Amino acid sequence: MAQGGSTMGEEPTWAELLLIFVLGAAIPTIVGGAVIFSLVGLTVWATAPLRRRRRTRSEEA
Fold this sequence. Notes:
mainly alpha, 1 helix, 0% strand, rod-shaped
């Protein structure tokens, strides 16, 4: 049985390669930035009572 056409796909153009590269770089950057932003926010939120306590002690002294 004869096989019609090529079994391999066409090579991507430079624009498609650039788009793949940009998306491949942007997605981890966005996800990583969101994770870091969340961790910093949670840390600030969790340590807020400690900072408040320290501030009142330093004002009393």
